[in-house]
């Protein structure tokens, strides 16, 4: 498995028509991908009077950062007007353990399912994949009862557990596909040496799967950070994630809407996953290049 | 005690949490849903069995049919669209481009955004009175028309565009990683023969990327049937039923319409459909793998 | 399931009995609403500060959006951990919870406050179930309003408010001719359904409206009213812009505020948007009940009180019910929320011109309930689907659609 990240293609020579074409395509595509971000930023920097004019592609006439400070620390969600700030740490407290735990379990499952196959493990995998396809809304009702019986309802542990459960199908799939591509001899040799199930996992497989751990963590982080419904239902009012506060600011049926604040709050909420992608983008590509996602 | 017994004990322990989650949550909930779909439950579960009448009601609802049709159209176009756009972007980026990492970040960042945000922004941009259409007309092209999101016949395609915007970057990363893993000798040989670059990508690279693209497609498909947030934020199922999807239908029935019976009937139909689509496919893969092992 | 729930409640009640009553404890209430926007929160704050002044302790659990708040509430009930009070639209939405025995009656508060005398009879009936009062109403919203831009009307040369639908459409033509968008339309199912109901009231009258929705009457007279309603609704399609589908009501209001559009049909909460933009009713914009209407469609908010099995919360529930119905609170709340007080005996002088009109109709009993009050949530949803499908399909045949109407009640 080669880890080189060098482009294929011929060496760039002079500007041929072909290369100009490629650049035109890339720049056009980049504009298409950036346009929504531009609209969000521009709107967040406008005053509401300007927003009401409805010229979404125009730059703000004068930059007004009022909406940003409101979104961070002043926007009302109900009676308390504290912006999305208060949910930030809750989101961190939910996301970090949930990502860690689900990636660990996923790696364990993937390892057990690829190297210690049995008919029961095949059934487990099939059930897990089937479960992964069901809209999770349908799980809410019984899950609430289960959590209440376990006295985990409305608690940090409860919401973390729920995220881990719903993350299992995807993470298990990722790790299983990763381990399937690792030569079985590696495991067999270790077994001959007398290494047990857990030793092989911790000493050989886990270190081997660093690239996959990066990829799976990124997937899970994005998904859990952006979740709204599960956080709303299971977290309890002391642990509500940032997205619930975002919803309270953005989504109102009969009240007035401050779009500039909405956009600023939206960007603030998306900032953490965006930053993580930005700084770990290279690792992400490397992880996938190392065979993290293969058929 | 034999070593193999110890080992199988370890495997069982490792998979135990997942087994519990699968049996209690996934299987348990599915059975619970199926049972309720035969009752007249409204807000709370009831044990008054009414046979198949919830299913009869479900399939007599034009909105449900529209939802099934829409999710099929959306699913196929979204997955294919992401694959095509993602592959094209990757192919362009693979040609020794300046600022490759900048482009890569631009194409990938939407994946870090939640669907709620994606939906809201695209709803604005596609709104004919102040979005892209109005802006192009303001530049002087009076006949320009881009009213997909408000046109019942085209709205679902507008949702597809927003979906592709969000998901294409993922495919791009996976495809790019795959391209970097292809040996350079093949390139040289093809170049010496004077084959044009686009032919090389189509006939040499694309087939080799098959498994990676299939994995990417699978990741995207996992999300399709659960599509809910994007629709709610962008069109709320409208205009009319033009973008209604099953997950939204179920969610609405569950909470806003206090109709547990109908919601669980919908969920059951959805699960059965998924199994009917996925099972033959998985079976074929399984059989092929077996044959290969046998050979 | 039902038995398990009963057992749970019985256990909770027992626990409450055994718990030592501590007289010094402040009654503590966790209040769940979907009021999160500026005006709504300000209104809620009126109730809160009075509640706290009378010795209560308030914990706010507001969640935006009816759907999200309902989902959270239902799940809390299922988990056996309900909040102390929940904001809810009066009518059949809370009825199922009451029927299941999950709610505390507030009879003694209602009796002590003589609610039966100070509330319109329609309202008093809706908050009672089996002779017991369960809900404490906060305020009503009138939903038969047509807001119009005076500036746009002047430009188009419309001298007076249209008295009939013919006059209305003539006025719309004038607006169109003047290059102004006639109707600022919010193309979401719930908004369209409200317009449908407003028109239906103007065509069927109060008795006819109630016959259709309460008695589920399908006589030729009722069907004729549906037909007229759909015809008028269908005619409106020619006066809206192509950006209408999916438009939020407040974006539509903004179009009237800036005189880009002539009129908007909406509930009285739209006044809040005008006020925020510095517009004055009667001067910058007008509010009128729909042409040919003898009354007004209304929707009313209230609090209901889940059984929590906690004595301190029981006390808090009674205190909150009392506060909500306090005459001064009712007026102050309504001013902030843009609604109409529920009590008929309050000081009207502080209300704006539109609210006064609404309160007059209310006191005179010339009101009909919104579908959310008289239909089950499933039926109300089916009605929204019905209207939305009709509106979005310009080639829909009115006669065929009329024939489909009774299927809503199945």
Describe the structure.
- The complex is a heterotrimer of chains A (295), B (295) and C (410).
- Chain A is mainly alpha-helical.
- Chain A has helices at residues 17-44, 48-52, 66-74, 85-115, 119-132, 140-149, 156-180, 184-192, 197-208, 210-226, 229-234, 242-250, 259-292, and strands spanning 76-77, 80-81.
- Chain A is built from 13 helices and 2 strands; from the N terminus they run αααββαααααααααα.
- In chain A, a hairpin with a 2-residue loop joins strand 1 and strand 2 (80-81).
- The longest helix of chain A has 34 residues, at 259-292.
- The model of chain A has no long low-confidence stretch (mean pLDDT 81).
- The radius of gyration of chain B is 24 Å and the shape is flat.
- Chain B has helices at residues 3-36, 53-59, 62-93, 100-108, 115-126, 132-138, 155-180, 184-192, 197-224, 229-234, 246-256, 260-294.
- Chain B has one domain (37-294): MetI-like (MetI-like fold, Orthogonal Bundle), CATH 1.10.3720.
- The two termini of chain B are 36 Å apart.
- Chain C is an alpha/beta fold and 410 residues long.
- Chain C folds into 2 domains: 2-17 and 29-142 and 298-364, D-Maltodextrin-Binding Protein, domain 2 (3-Layer(aba) Sandwich); 145-295 and 369-409, 3-Layer(aba) Sandwich (D-Maltodextrin-Binding Protein, domain 2).
- In chain C, strands 1, 2, 3, 6, 11 and 12 form a 6-stranded mixed β-sheet that branches. A 4-stranded mixed β-sheet of chain C has the order 8-9-7-10, sandwiched between helices. Chain C has a two-stranded antiparallel ribbon with strand order 4-5.
């Amino acid at each position: 498995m080669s880890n080189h990240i060098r482009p294929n293609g011929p060496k760039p020579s002079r500007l041929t028509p072909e290369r100009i074409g490629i650049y035109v395509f890339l720049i056009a595509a980049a504009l298409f991908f950036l346009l929504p971000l531009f609209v969000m930023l521009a709107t967040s920097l406008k005053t509401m009077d300007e927003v009401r004019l409805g010229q979404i592609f125009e730059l703000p006439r004068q930059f007004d950062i009022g909406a940003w400070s409101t979104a961070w620390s002043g926007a009302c969600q109900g009676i308390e007007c504290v912006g999305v700030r208060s949910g930030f740490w809750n989101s961190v407290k939910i996301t970090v353990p949930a990502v860690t735990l689900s990636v660990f379990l996923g790696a364990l499952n993937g390892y057990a399912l690829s190297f210690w196959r049995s008919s029961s493990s095949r059934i487990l995998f099939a059930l897990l994949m089937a479960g992964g396809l069901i809209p999770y809304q349908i799980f809410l009702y019984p899950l609430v009862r289960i959590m209440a019986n376990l006295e985990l309802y409305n608690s940090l542990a409860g919401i973390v557990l729920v995220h881990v459960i719903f993350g299992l199908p995807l993470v298990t799939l990722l790790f299983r596909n990763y381990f399937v591509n690792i030569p079985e001899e590696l495991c067999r040799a270790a077994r001959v040496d007398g290494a047990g199930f857990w030793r092989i996992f911790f000493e050989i497989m886990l270190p081997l799967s660093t690239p996959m751990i990066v990829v799976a963590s990124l997937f899970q982080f994005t998904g859990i950070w952006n979740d709204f419904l599960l956080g709303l239902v299971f977290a309890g009012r002391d642990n509500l994630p940032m997205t619930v506060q975002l919803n309270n600011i953005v989504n109102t049926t009969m009240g007035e809407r401050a779009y500039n604040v909405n956009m600023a709050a939206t960007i603030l909420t998306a900032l953490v996953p965006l930053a993580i992608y930005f700084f770990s983008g290279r690792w992400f590509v490397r992880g996938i290049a190392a065979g993290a996602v293969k058929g | 005690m034999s070593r193999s017994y110890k080992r199988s004990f370890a495997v069982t322990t490792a998979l135990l949490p997942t087994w519990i989650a699968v049996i209690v949550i996934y299987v348990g909930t599915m059975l619970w849903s199926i049972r309720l779909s035969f009752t007249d439950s409204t807000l709370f579960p009831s044990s008054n069995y009414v046979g198949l009448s919830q299913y009869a009601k479900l399939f007599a609802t034009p909105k449900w049919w529209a939802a099934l049709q829409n999710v099929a159209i959306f699913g196929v176009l979204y997955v294919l669209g992401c694959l095509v756009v993602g592959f094209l972007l990757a192919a362009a980026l693979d040609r020794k481009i300046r600022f490759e990492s900048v482009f890569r970040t631009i194409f990938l960042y939407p994946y870090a955004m939640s669907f709620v945000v994606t939906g809201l922004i695209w709803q604005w941009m596609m709104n004919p009175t102040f979005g892209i259409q109005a802006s192009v007309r303001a530049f002087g092209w009076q006949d320009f028309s881009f009213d997909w999101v408000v046109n019942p016949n085209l709205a679902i395609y507008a949702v597809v565009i927003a979906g592709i915007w969000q998901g294409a970057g993922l495919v791009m990363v996976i495809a790019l990683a795959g391209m970097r893993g292809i040996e350079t000798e093949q390139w040289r040989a093809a170049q010496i023969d004077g084959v044009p670059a686009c032919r090389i990508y189509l006939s040499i690279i694309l087939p080799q990327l098959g498994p990676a693209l299939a994995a990417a497609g699978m990741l995207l498909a996992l999300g399709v049937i659960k599509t809910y947030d994007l629709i709610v934020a962008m069109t709320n199922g409208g205009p009319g039923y033009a973008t209604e999807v099953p997950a939204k239908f179920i969610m609405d029935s569950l909470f806003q319409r206090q109709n547990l019976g109908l919601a669980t009937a919908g969920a059951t139909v959805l699960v059965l459909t998924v199994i009917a689509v996925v099972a033959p496919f998985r079976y074929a893969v399984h059989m092929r793998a077996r044959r290969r092992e046998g050979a | 399931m039902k038995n398990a729930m009963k057992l749970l409640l019985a256990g909770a009640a027992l626990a409450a009995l055994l718990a030592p009553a501590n007289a010094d404890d402040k009654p503590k209430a966790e209040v769940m609403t979907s009021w999160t926007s500026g005006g709504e929160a300000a209104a809620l704050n009126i109730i809160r500060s009075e509640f706290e002044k009378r010795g209560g302790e308030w914990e706010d659990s507001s969640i935006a959006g009816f759907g999200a708040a309902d989902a959270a509430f239902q799940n809390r009930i299922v988990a056996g951990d309900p909040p102390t009070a929940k904001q809810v639209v009066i009518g059949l939405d809370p009825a199922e919870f009451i029927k299941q025995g999950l709610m505390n009656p507030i009879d003694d508060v209602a009796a002590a406050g003589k609610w039966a005398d100070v509330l319109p009879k329609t309202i008093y009936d809706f908050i009672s179930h089996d002779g017991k009062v369960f809900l404490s109403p906060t305020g009503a919203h009138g939903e038969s309003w047509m807001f119009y831009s005076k500036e746009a009307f002047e430009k188009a040369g419309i001298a007076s408010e249209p008295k009939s639908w013919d006059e209305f459409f003539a006025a719309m033509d004038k607006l169109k001719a003047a290059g102004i968008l006639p109707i600022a339309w919010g193309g979401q199912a719930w908004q369209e359904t409200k317009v449908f109901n407003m028109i239906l009231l103007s065509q069927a009258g109060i008795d006819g409206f109630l016959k259709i929705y309460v008695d589920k009457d399908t006589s030729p007279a009722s069907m004729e009213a549906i037909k007229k309603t759909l015809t008028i609704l269908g005619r409106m399609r020619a006066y809206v812009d192509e950006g209408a589908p999916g438009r939020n009501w407040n974006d539509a209001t903004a179009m009237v505020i800036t005189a880009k559009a002539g009129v908007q049909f909406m509930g009285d909460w739209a006044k809040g948007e005008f006020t925020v933009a510095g517009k004055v009713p009667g001067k910058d914009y007008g509010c009128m009940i729909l042409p040919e209407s003898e009354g007004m469609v209304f929707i009313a908010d209230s609090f209901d009180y889940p059984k929590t099995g906690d004595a301190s919360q029981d006390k808090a529930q009674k205190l909150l019910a009392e506060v909500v119905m306090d005459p001064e609170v009712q007026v102050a709340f309504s001013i902030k929320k843009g609604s109409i007080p529920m009590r008929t005996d309050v000081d009207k002088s502080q209300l704006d011109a539109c609210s006064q009109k609404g309160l007059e109709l209310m006191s005179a009993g010339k009101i009909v309930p919104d579908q959310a009050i008289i239909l089950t949530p499933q039926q109300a949803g089916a009605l929204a689907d019905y209207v939305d499908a009709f509106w979005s399909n310009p080639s829909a045949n009115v006669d065929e659609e009329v024939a489909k109407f009774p299927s809503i009640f199945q």
